[in-house]
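Quick one:
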Amino acid sequence: MPLKAELIVNPCSGGFNKEVIDKVYYILKEKFTLTNITYTNYAKHAEKLACDSKADILFIAGGDGLINEVINGIVKKKCIIYPLAFGTANVFCREYNIPVDPVKAAKKININDVYNIPLGKINDRIFVKMVGFGFDAAVVNNLNYYLRKINSKFAHIVSGIKVLVNGNFKQFDLYIKDNKICAYSLIISLGRKYAGNYNLVKHFFYNGFTICVINNPERTAILKNTFSILLNKGVVGDVYLCDSIIVEGPTYCQIDGEYFGLTNSRCNVSYIKSNFFLASYSEEN
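Output:
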């Protein structure tokens, strides 16, 4: 029986292009019974669309934020997903070796090679790549939307400078295996890639979280860490490996590159595996 597929598109994503979407649509239509193409209309709309979908395969045409929404909608399902990069940073696609050229990615999908992926859970919210607090979250919170669509990397640099000048990030606490650690910036990551194609750490641990902590409030420490990442040398702060962490104090964070307000200042972050499957990209396909 042919697999039924659905294409979920975010028309507000940084790399959205209607002509390219149409090309992708016709490629997928030749390969699968494409039951629907749906455009999101509001924040978290993709979560509802994915939850209500009866498709065997969900194609996600957008950025990391759209992927996050879809995965939160299918977290208990046994379907297949495949992202098509129409975002600004496209960290998820880079991490899983899916081309950031969506036409190329659509042509070479391999549904015979699918696998579960690691996920993180912060309170009741799922994340697929990372969650950040402190300085890292403040940069995302202060991003200029229009500048981000034009040049995501430059927008992050501009926001980072503003946050450093204003100093609007506060100390908070985290607990790793009952050890209390004070921090000013925290990244909890499921992958090596960060802010596009930069490497977060030199040596990555793929069986849990890689946790990067900056516990120095001095601007020079934050700058040193930022430039180290931009030079692909990884973070210069402390790095821990674990599968659960408690964070206390912050009122907001960034989840998969998007601002997220917290209703509880105590966050439980845990490592889980997906029920759904990710399809592979294959040059030979």
